[in-house]
Amino acid sequence: MKRKSNLVAISAVAGSIVLIACGGGGGGGTATGTTATTSTTATTATTATTATTATTATTATTATTATTATTATTATTATTATTSSTTGGTAGSLPTNAILFTQLDGTGVFLKSIKEDGTNETVLASFSGDTTKAVAANPNTVNQFAFINIVNGTSTEMRLYRGNSALDPASSTQLTATVFDDVLDVQFSPDGQYVLFSAVRPGDLNYKLFVVPAAGGTETILDDGGDFAVCPDSTNRVVVYSKDNPSGVSSDLYSMNYTTGAGGTALTTLATEAYTPSWNRAGTKLYFASQQPVSGGGGGAQTELFTVPFPSGSATRVTTTDPVFESGFGVNENETKVSFINFTGSATDSGLYVMNANGTSSIKLVAGTNLGFTTYFTNSQGRSLGGQPFHFSFGPRRARR
Question: Are 8 and 22 in contact (CB under 8 A)?
Fold first, then answer.
């Protein structure tokens, strides 16, 4: 049976990620706002309901979600996360000083939070991994998302839509007429006017970076590009992305104005791969991964965390731990901690980690190879500290090159 896409309504209002409601449940077919187990979807679609109503609607279904995910989270904890106002304000609705991440299992994709010390692992929402590849919240419109729909569960046929938290193509607007073989990620611009995504069209050899107006239209190719990150500064309409450098044997990070196409300027000049960029909150620094030779010789490569200042400067290596594959970097409120996903192929070593921003004292918080590619910190007000507008991507990826 396919899990219904009962995505919590993660809406960005004045820079705050607001958790309106979340639901669990099973069953077949596509989720709609009228099914008995997804009453929260119908409530969320109006976005005018009070926090009390949202909390009441989620109490029964949240317990199902927590049980399915086999975590120690209680229904009370998950419900408490939904009690914030949807009008922005000072407080957000997410758990405070926590790390957000996604985890997949046989029943769906779960959006979770966990504290830096590994306590309070909490299920916030669940949705279908069979029908959804990536989700991004519009930072300026409550309950509006761009999402990649996997057509008929076929991993080589994907479409881009804009809609509400139901993530239902039938009630959403298809933003482009193009059908894609694969999509890496999707992100809104911080002003909510544009949607950027990295995808492969039928016949393409490499991923390309696209932009399309949030209202819909014909997508524009910005450049070849895989992993990317939109600058959080809305006055600086820049996207940083990973692309093969002229050598053809490795990649660097490049920057471009996504409204004019100007730029295409290399930010790094490493002799090895550079990818999975993430911004700090101020838009002045990027965290990214780069492959490095395994210490001690013997061949092979390990992936380490680097930083580079924006708009220019030298890249600095932060970690020297092998063998790891680090990705999905998140930075906390005062930039003293970094969260990341470690993929090693080993269930023992793979998982969600947190470490000091200087690369020391790495701690594994969640073990497993079934984690998504993005992590975020929340601050003391329960608001997302993602360096770019809130988004998650998950599922298998094609080779980048």
Answer: yes
